[in-house]
Amino acid sequence: MTTPRPVVAVLGTGIIGAPVARNLAQGGFTVRAWNRTRAKADALAEHGVHVADTPADAVDGADVVLTVLNDGPRVLEAVRAAAPKLTEGTVWVQVSTVGEDIDAIAAYAAEAGLVLVDAPVQGTRQPAELGKLVVLAAGPETVRPTVQPLFDTIGSRTVWVGEDGTKGAASRLKLVLNTWVIALTNGVGEALSLARGLDVDPKHFVDVITGGPLDSGYFQGKSGAVLAEDFTPSFTVDNAEKDARLAAEAARRAGLRLDGAEAARDRFARASEQGHGAEDMAAVYFASFDAAAAPDPQA
User: Fold this and answer.
1) Backbone angles phi, psi at 121, to 5 degrees
2) N- or C-end of the chain: fewer Cβ atoms within 10 A?
3) What is the pTM of this model?
């Protein structure tokens, strides 16, 4: 006997949320979605997603609620707005990068009688569109049969890191992973900006790295974006600034200093002030230059 698939509400249909909702609908789930700016969600209707006007409308009748929003405060705001239509025992899958705000989220889940699964994802636009995110998950064994089919639809694999979603193990692992991504992105940007400053052909830098132990698909993607001047966002500068800030704040609370993350946060903020906030995080490259000097990466 086939177990019926749960009705899923997706709150937040941005760069990650939209493909998550679309893939779930195409995977046979009944999906209801809400986004603060409804126009960003309307295109999902042609994929069988019911687009709701409010968070409460979206979660009405849902078995599982996925929050895919920018940060912890926005996640809490959306779920509080949905509260009138949430029933006790509803599974809340927290997919956003929220850092230490997971504690406030866990407290609200307990207050509202929701079963929290802490499940941030590793990956950006393309993996989300292809259903190849890596899901970092912590939650009770009792709900895993309910949520695992969702994770198998949106991701290539799931890494379970704990049985209690309220402890924040997955969200804190996400901060560790993001610290590495942020370091790589800034390393590419600074190396390419130095090449420009020293009148070195940046293509020679990329050529030396290619195929060697320092090469990676990520290096090729971000260096290629800078050289092609294509900053179509897979993850924005502003989101990267937020994630660097969350990592640095968590480190300070743990009695650590993350000098690289602190510097990266400043660089992302500077690139945003120069007008690159909505561009791909590779545009942190521009933080090395005065705002008035609009560099041509290929010059």
Assistant:
1) -115, 150
2) N
3) 0.91
DSSP annotation of 293:
-
Answer yes or no: are the C-beta atoms of 61 and 7 closer than 8 Å.
Answer: yes
Of 233 and 298, more confident:
233
The structure tokens 């997971």 sit at 102
Contact 282, 185 (CB under 8 A): yes
Cα distances (Å, whole numbers) of residue 193 to 74, 203, 251, 291: 35, 12, 28, 14
Name the token pair of 215. 């090469």
Token code pair at residue 95: 């997919």
Query: Which residue type, as a one-letter code, is found at position 123?
Result: G
Residues in the chain: 299
| DSSP secondary structure string for all residues of 141-189 | GGGHHHHHHHHHHHEEEEEEEES-GGG-HHHHHHHHHHHHHHHHHHHHH
* Angle, alpha carbons 130-135-136 (nearest 5°): 160
pLDDT tens for each residue of 192-244: 999 999 999 999 999 999 999 999 999 999 999 999 999 999 999 999 999 99
Based on its alpha-carbon atoms, the radius of gyration of the chain, rounded to whole angstroms, reads 20
SS3 percent helix, strand, coil of the chain, rounded to 5, is: 55, 15, 30
Distance CA 185, CA 192 (A): 11
Domains of the chain listed by start with CATH number = 7-167 (3.40.50.720), 173-288 (1.10.1040.10)
Strands, E assignment, 54-154: 64-67, 91-94, 115-118, 121-122, 133-138
